[in-house]
Amino acid sequence: MQIAQVIVDVPTRQTNEPYSYEIPANFDGQVQPGMRVQVPFGPRKVTGFIVGLTDHSDFDGKLKKISGLVDLSPVITPELLKLSEWLAGQTFSFKISCLQTMLPGGMRTKFKKKLLTDNQTKAAYPEIFHGENEINYDQQKFDNQTIGKILTLRKADKIKVHYELSNHSKPMLVKAFQSKLTPTQIDEALATISKRFVSQSRLLQILKDQRDLPLQQAWLSKKGVTSTTLETAVKRGWVDETRVRRIRNPFLQPVKKSYPLALNDDQQSAVDRINRAIENQANTTFLLEGVTGSGKTEVYLQAMAHALKTGKTALMLVPEITLTPQIVGRIRSRFGDQVAMLHSAMSSGERYDEWQRINDGQAKVVVGVRSAIFAPLENIGLIIMDEEHDSSYKQTETPRYQTRDVAKWRAAYNHCPVVLGSATPSLESRARAMKGVYELILLPHRFNNHALPHVSIVDMKDEMARSRNILSKKLADLVDDRLAKHEQIILLLNRRGYSSFIMCRDCGYVPQCPNCDISLTMHKDTHTLNCHLCGHKEPIPVVCPKCHSKRIRHYGIGSQQLEEQVKEMFPKARVLRMDVDTTRKKGSHEAIINKFGAHQADILLGTQMIAKGLDFPEVTLVGVLNADSALQFPDFRSSERTFQLLTQVSGRSGRADKQGEVVIQTFNPDHYAIQLAKTQDYEKFYQTEMQIRHIGKYPPYYFTVKITGSSPSEKQTAYEMHQIAHFLRRYLTNQAIILGPTPKTIKRINNRYFYQIIIKYRQEPHLKDVLDKILTTSQTKERKGLLISIDNEPLDFM
Ligand code: ADP
Ligand code: ZN
Ligand code: ZN
Question: Which cofactors does the annotated protein need, by name (predicted)?
């Protein structure tokens, strides 16, 4: 008897122990780890992942049987199965959530499955296909014997499976042809047909190289194979006609092919070191620290090309890819159709198609955001993380993983190097490089020795005494100057911790969200006050609800108002705005960037989105309107974030031949993060910040864990969190520092009360056991309404 070990998905009854289920005889030998199944669990049926197969079980009762197959082939590769185990341990989460995180969104939600087949199989199995090339796969409708047959056909590649979102438009099915010949048969056929049949010999040549996959007719006809030839080929038994789903193309526009550039010495030595590690299958982690504009991208591209040359694949991660269409364009122009792309602005269908291309081994280069680290890519030769310090690499929901750690795990598994690239590395990574855990590669100069931009700081306290204008005199003068010279300008409005709100001028009343402890944000476009935590909306009051005064005023500035002001100040300037509102529609982000790149606008203004990765040679002025709005956060990383942001955005200026200039407006001109951003001295910043972290016992000197608990009752939350703190104090050694429980900075969100505990430690032998215990008991607490989450190495303590 074959037994499957299944990790089941049962809310509030989760466990990391697999359950054993008997595999029905018809599925014998066909069921594999990495497939999803349906199994009986108590009175209901639940889904689960097969994580292992065995022929004996310690369970002495009668085993229940698997009741259905969700997948007909594995959706989780053996590597990713192993990774899920490690990930669960690393993030103190349940395996089921790790496995689900690895699948593309479309496959997690509701989907239908289609079985596609060729004419021969259709004719041979009328009881399955009823004369159709395409049928729905509904596990309830087929008996085990039929499913057994389907599995066998699937394995023999006679059936293709396609996932389809139920609410999704019909997939495009197109005619395709699958080779039936062996290489020798092809050679024989080639030798016998007359040279005059150009189209036929062309087809045979193509079949020689492409035997595994059905070839689309449209593609074949582009290669000069006529439809008459294809009819003949079917009659002669060279190919089978079938239908395949046309792959949705996530790339909006075709790109021109580009070729490797000649490297400067620094780039060359970086590429050499990485290439050597690829060849030696060395699991080295490189920290590529290169100032903005030093040409890191070209280093990535040439190292990736080398990985492909050695027969391997390459994985490259970027922060929120939609924000950097430029870099995607550069990668595509180098690697063409071998590139698969995975990011959040793609539709579920597009993402599924790309995932499928990777799973089928068609894509050799994967570029994507955080979740792309779980791409089912095999035989990886190089992993790159661009802007490794970026906070989007940390997942903020269960499992709360740090992409860097997952990248290092996969690199170790694949015996390949990892390259972490940044102009402003995270302190964690830089500290590791200093200790020799990572190898440091420096690109200290801009490409072509272009100068770094000149940065000046404007004290807004002085400025505000003179005028209420959001642009200081200095910045406004420089904008005028650039407009006159026909050069381009970027203006950044730092949105973090910054919003517009309303306040009564007579009594100081500020409207609060009824469900959360936070003031409401004013949205001019919808004429509402919104809560950005729970989504609550209400009309903007005309009379103060507290003192009935009519003097309700609006404070703070949004990018929309900034746009209005800028247009008023510079009536001749062509202005583009990029923020969440102007980029909601698909492709709009790219459109704005292309327009600015084509110099169809003079000023690009926007939020954090415009700070990263953009490379426009005509930009010679960058203005940061409110540099310090993040500094007042009670967060040990605020300085680091501010320094990184200012360095990033300054780096957009003066990237080509013209000298760039940057104006930073701030109320805290003396803050070290701002002062050091002025001199763009990462080294000094690193030293200063490390001292502060040392004194405060913060990362990277200490490891940290954050435990958060929430429930609808503050009393219950506080009580349970005290219990947990008590448990921690009892079982951890006295080297561990346990802070709290304390209410979170925003205590109430959506009528739930949040408390947290912070653990800081350098070495804590019992930590894993203790946290695993908390994770296990969290399920009992969840049934009582208390949600517990554990965040290993949280980004903040808020
Ligand atoms: P970074 O990512 O380090 O900020 P980029 O990779 O965007 O820098 O490079 C900065 C600029 O220098 C880009 O315009 C890029 O095209 C150019 N560049 C980089 N390397 C080379 C090279 N080897 N030859 C020619 N141009 C290069
Ligand atoms: Zn009032
Ligand atoms: Zn709210």
Answer: Zn(2+)
Distance of CA 354 to the CA centre of its chain: 14
User: What are the φ and ψ backbone dihedral angles of 513, each rounded to 5 degrees?
Assistant: -70, 135
Range of the domain at 69: 3-103
Chain-centre distance for alpha carbon 311 = 26
Q: Which ligand is nearest to the CA of 511?
A: 2
pLDDT tens digits along 227-255? 889 999 999 889 988 877 665 554 444 56
**34: pLDDT strictly greater than 50:** yes
Q: CA angle, corner 42, sides to 37 and 48, nearest 5?
A: 20
Ligand 1 site, residue 302, Cβ cutoff 6 A: no
**Domains contained in the chain, number:** 6
Task: Report the C-alpha gap between 594 and 575 in whole angstroms.
Answer: 14
Q: Does the structure show a pLDDT above 50 at 83? A: yes
Please, how many CA atoms are within 13 Å of residue 265, restricted to the half-sphere of its CB? 3
Q: What is the pLDDT of residue 110?
A: 55
Q: Which positions ≥6 away from 742 have C-beta within 8 Å?
A: 755, 756
Q: What is the pLDDT of residue 656?
A: 78
In short, whether 266's Cβ falls inside 6 Å of ligand 1 is no
191 and 160 both lie in a single domain: no
Beta-sheet pairing, 703-711 with 787-792:
antiparallel
For ligand 1, atom 24, the nearest C-alpha belongs to 261
- pLDDT digit string (tens) for 727-749? 999 999 999 999 989 999 889 99
Instruction: Report how far residue 388's alpha carbon sits from residue 406's, in angstroms, rounded to the nearest whole number.
Output: 13
Q: 757: CA distance to ligand 3 center in Å?
A: 23
User: Residue 364 C-alpha to ligand 2 middle, in angstroms?
Assistant: 63
Strand partners, 46: 39
| Portion of the chain with pLDDT greater than 70, in percent | 94
Q: Which atom of ligand 1 is nearest to the CA of 443?
A: 3
Lowest average pLDDT, out of 389-403, 491-505, 694-708, goes to 491-505
Q: Are residues 229 and 155 in the same domain?
A: no
Give dist(CA 374, CA 213) in Å, integer.
Answer: 24
What's the gap in Å between 546 CA and the centre of ligand 2?
5
Residue 416 in marked binding region: no
pLDDT tens digits, residue range 694-734?
A: 999 999 999 999 999 999 999 999 999 999 999 999 999 99
Residue that terminates a domain, selected from 245, 279, 306: 245
- Residue 653 Cβ < 6 Å to ligand 1: no
Burial of residue 257, with CB atoms counted within 10 A of its CB: 0-12 exposed, 13-18 middle, 19 or more buried: exposed
